Fold:
Amino acid sequence: MVSLMNSIDEIVKTANKYKVLALEVRKEFTRLRFKQDDDIRELYFHITKNITRELKKSGLSKFDRKKLNKILKVVDRETDTLNKELVKNFNKYLKLNIDTSSIYSKSILAKATEDAGIARLSKDIIYKMFEDSSYRTLKAYYDKTKDGLLLSDAIWLKSQQYRDTIKSILQASISEGKDCVKVAKSLETYVKKGRKTFVDKYPNMINRIGNRVPQKLNYEALRLARTEMTAAYGAGVLASANISPASQALKFMLSIAHPKTDICDEICLCDDFGLGKGVYPINEAPAYPFHPNCLCIVMTVELQPEELVQRLLRWNSDPWTEPSIEYWYQDVYLNYIE
Structure:
C-alpha cells in the first residue's frame, strides 16, 4: 500500500512551486468525496425511515400479506423519490468536481499572465475560458454513455436495486411472524449496520432471502458516485490542460488507499514516454479512472512560474519565438474576446 507521505510527496514533487495550490485542490476533491458519501448515506436512511414510519403505524399487529401490499405502494413511491434525489445529488457533485478540477491550471495561468503584465492578456478572459471549458465538460458528461447507459439510466438502476432489496426483506418478513414494529426495526438495522449485523440479529431471515441482499444497501450508489465523480474530475483536468499553454502533461499517481497491485500500478509507475513515472503527453493520457472505485490521483504537469512568465514575455515581444503560446492565443484565447 502507498503511504500517506509518499502520496503527498508525489503531489508536492510534481507541483514544485505550486505545491500549496496542488494540495488545496486535492483536499477539496477529497472533501467533496466524503461529503457526497455522507449525503448519499443520509438519503438512503431518510428514504427508509419514510417506509418504516408507515410500517410502525400498524403497531404490534402481525405483518401479513395485506399489510405487505399496502406498504409496497409506499416503497414504490419512496423509490421514485430516491431516484429523483440521487439525480439531484449527482448533478450537484458533478458540477462541483468539474469546477474544482479546473482550479489548478486556471490559477497558474492567470497568475503568470498577471505577473508578466501583458496588456493583451486579461485574467478575466482566462477565467472565462476555464468556466466555458467546465460547462462544456459537464454537458458532454451528461451525453456520454457507458455500457450503453446514460448516467441517468445507471442512477435509475441503483434506485430499482433499492426497491427490490426492500421488497425482498418485506416479503420474507411475512413468514417470520413478526409484528410491524419489529419488521420496521429490522429494515432500519440493515440500512444502518449492513448485512452482517442484520443477519446476526435476524438469523432466520438470510435463509429466506439468500444473496438478494447486498452487504450494504447504499454500496452500489456510493460505488457509482465515487467512480463517476472521479471520471468527471479527470475529464475536467484533461479539458483544462487542453486550453492552457502552461500545461505540459498529465501525471497519474497511486492513492494512499491503493490496496493491492492492479492496472493502477501499471499505469502510474510506467515511463513509456520518458517523462517520468506516470507522466503522459496530454494527447496520450489513458482513460481515467482505471476501474470502478479507483482513487488514483491525476494532475497536470505545469511550467514553473519563472519559466512560464519568461515564455509569455518572449511571446509578447516576438510571437513566433514561442509558437505553442501563439497557437494558443490564436486558437483559444481570441475566441473569448467579444
Observations:
- The chain is about 65% helix and 5% strand.
- The first helix runs from residue 4 to 15.
- Confidence is low (pLDDT under 50) at residues 1-5.
- The two ends are 51 Å apart (CA to CA).
